[in-house]
Design goal:
Helix content: 55-70%
Shape: globular
Largest sheet: 4 strands, mixed
Order of helices and strands: HEHEEEHHHHHHH
Radius of gyration: 21 Å
């Protein structure tokens, strides 16, 4: 039992860090957001809700400038003020924002946000344990190596989640009658919208798949799902 104590302490530490992160995120979202009041986006949310046989899909506005959408730990969906400004300027259509909402609904449907919080707990525990082991062999840089390995693992998990949410969004957009065109066109605009045409990639995009990879996956899913069923013997 005593041999397991350090590991149990690390798990407890990771759990407390997770709870603190959830509390801090919820507080920030509560303080910096409000219900959406854009009629065009409310209309696409109604259409997505109908395709899901839900009474409504609530969308909130997060009052920050970066262009992004997110699904909170409690299932709430947010579009940033920066995204809505791009729409007001004519750079993004309501249908393209419908694909963002559909993508975030995909994260909720798959339980990605909750799973990432659990992964975060494990990452902290494993990272600290790995740093302790590596520091015995490479003093001074063991912690850096452990942190790099942990971040690479989380990035891989994040990429998987993004592809899953994209596929879920594709199915919903097709069912709602929008098709995949808005989803694909948004990904083609993404670098310009986020100001990363040739510069630094923002933190929230570093663990995401490349736009070209996501578009290829969307097109493959669309072709597979909309392929007519074969009839008669081969």
């Amino acid at each position: 039992m005593l041999r397991l104590m350090p590991f149990l302490i690390l798990i407890a530490y990771g759990f407390l860090m997770m709870r603190f992160s959830v509390w801090r995120s919820k507080r920030m979202l509560d303080e910096q957001s409000r219900p959406l009041d854009d009629p065009e986006i409310q209309a696409v949310a109604v259409r997505l809700a109908a395709a899901l046989d839900l009474p409504e899909v609530r969308v909130n506005v997060l009052e920050i400038e970066p262009v992004n959408g997110l699904a909170a730990y409690d299932g709430r969906i947010f579009l940033t003020r920066g995204f809505l400004k791009k729409k007001a300027e004519g750079h993004v259509s309501p249908e393209e924002l419908a694909s963002v909402i559909a993508h975030e609904l995909g994260h909720v449907a798959h339980g990605h946000t909750r799973r990432r919080m659990i992964d975060f707990t494990g990452q902290n525990a494993v990272g600290i344990l790995l740093a302790g082991i590596l520091n015995r062999f490479v003093p001074g840089i063991g912690g850096m190596i452990a942190n790099m390995i942990s971040r690479m693992l989380m990035a891989k998990l994040s990429r998987r989640d993004e592809f899953e949410a994209d596929a879920w969004a594709t199915a919903l957009m097709i069912r709602a009658g929008y098709g995949t065109a808005p989803q694909i066109s948004l990904f083609r605009k993404l670098a310009g919208l986020t100001g990363t045409g040739g510069g630094e990639i923002p933190v929230w995009l570093r663990s995401h798949p490349k736009a070209e990879e996501r578009i290829a996956a969307i097109e493959a899913n669309e072709a597979r799902w909309q392929r007519p069923a074969l009839s008669g013997p081969l």
